[in-house]
Amino acid sequence: MKKIYLDNAATSPVDTAVVREMNSYFRQDYFNPSAKYSDAEDTLKVVEAVRATIGAKIGAKAKEIIFTSGGTEGNNLAIQGLIRVNPTKKHMIVSQIEHPSVLEIAKEFEKQGFEVDYVRVDENGVVDVEAISGLIRKDTLLVCVMHVNNETGVIQPIEKIGKLCREKEVYFHTDAVQSFAKIPIDVTKQKIDLLTVSGHKINGPKGVGFLYVREGVKISPLMFGGGQENKLRSGTLNVSGIVGLGKAAEIKRNYEKVRESRDLLVAQLLEIAGSRLNSSLEFGTSNIINISFKGIEAEALLFKLDKARIMVSTGSACSSGKVDVSHVLEAMKVSEDYIRCAIRFSFDELSRKEIDYIVKHVKSSVEKLRELSPFFEEENNRISKDMTFAELIEEDPEALGKLSGMGLGCGGCMMAQMETIEEGAMAHGLDPKMVLEELQTKKGEKSNGK
Ligand SMILES: Cc1ncc(COP(=O)(O)O)c(C=O)c1O
Q: Is the full-model pTM beyond 0.70?
């Protein structure tokens, strides 16, 4: 089997048409667009054409687009740039699930006395708009909420947040690195002031992206030099990268098909016992899912799948190598048992054959890892279908409530009868497996397929 790349949220392969388009800007049309001879002016025209087309993709004017080196720079330029020109405003609101290229800026400014509120998300990973409204103060400069989360794929209600910010006269920045060219963006309708994009998440090249800055919004540059990009981003323009970004943005993608792949993959992965979907399908984008397999270490599963040439991630690529728990799943109040065994699958269209191959290998790898995990054995064997109700209540007093919730009558009667869980379930016309799973679910935990 050839490799199956399921880490497109970390980076994506550059499309052949993009490479082709970029090629001539290395050895043939390599001119510095700031130069004054006619060949260089032609190169400048190409750059300006890309500026106009990618601007149009988000409903922006060409002059509102600043080319950058990608998402990290775009987020820094937006946030730091805004803070520097507004010294009287001392407060900002960012969501708890932002990418480190936003969170680390917030932490850095906190050290300098800037106040930051980290707005919560609900259990589906959706930012609480009401909470943002309650946090906005007189000295609030900016609200930062990403469009699509890179670990869960959850789409945020940016239009509502944009409207709220405009009403309260607070700037709104959104990190659209995982959404641009995948789901529609309209900066006017969604009332966005600043928006970050990166080329390498959309089958474009690495090291290029852009920041949209709404006309009239003032920011200061991070870098000083030749004054390119309207003095906001000095440095010779990355012409081949910009051309590649422009071409990548034009590629037509069939996200309906990607969604079909996602739904099929999720359905099959959730058949693995002890699995849990951390990303909401209802609020999620079509190309990212996050699933936990209880009782294993995500890193160990990643290495096993790598041997089968399946590439996945345990969180954002930028944090791989570190063993930090996911701040995104933590914010969603996923229990630690499930956080440490969470895997992100981010993909393009998948064939049935590929899905079958992925599921087969995830299943067998999870089973093998569980055989090695005393923790999983212990947890799962604690309650079995052959236990009597009396033994069950002794093991877990909270089971009484669960039993009556399932219509299994009064736990006390069951205890008196000394029936096993299996017998009791069948006597009440319930599936013993379902009853057992419910009894094995710990307080605060949710079952599959939310
Ligand atoms: C949501 C989000 N923002 C920002 C970035 C950083 O983008 P770049 O790699 O272009 O600096 C990433 C990359 O993983 C991301 O997923």
A: yes
